[in-house]
Amino acid sequence: MPQLNPAPWFAILLFSWFVLLVVIPPKVMAHTFPNEPTTQSTEKPKTESWNWPWHLASSTNL
């Protein structure tokens, strides 16, 4: 049975880990962000609730 011969599969395993650990990380780390992250303000935004006039009208027709 050829799948029991570890020689080609072990070489493929080692080469795959070599690619994942040596070749890929520099390529991923070379990416730059388009903007620098900034801290968010601690002040809460002032929001208003929305009016849904049709919601009350439809619930009274039940």
TrEMBL record:
GO annotation, biological process: proton motive force-driven ATP synthesis
Keywords: ATP synthesis, CF(0), Hydrogen ion transport, Ion transport, Membrane, Mitochondrion, Signal, Transmembrane, Transmembrane helix, Transport
One cellular component term from this protein's GO annotations in UniProt: proton-transporting ATP synthase complex
Mode of membrane association: Single-pass membrane protein
Subcellular location: Mitochondrion membrane
Gene Ontology molecular function terms on file: proton transmembrane transporter activity
Main localisation: mitochondrion
Family membership noted in the UniProt record: Belongs to the ATPase protein 8 family.
Assembly, per entry: Component of the ATP synthase complex composed at least of ATP5F1A/subunit alpha, ATP5F1B/subunit beta, ATP5MC1/subunit c (homooctomer), MT-ATP6/subunit a, MT-ATP8/subunit 8, ATP5ME/subunit e, ATP5MF/subunit f, ATP5MG/subunit g, ATP5MK/subunit k, ATP5MJ/subunit j, ATP5F1C/subunit gamma, ATP5F1D/subunit delta, ATP5F1E/subunit epsilon, ATP5PF/subunit F6, ATP5PB/subunit b, ATP5PD/subunit d, ATP5PO/subunit OSCP.
Protein name: ATP synthase complex subunit 8
Species this chain originates from: Acanthaluteres brownii
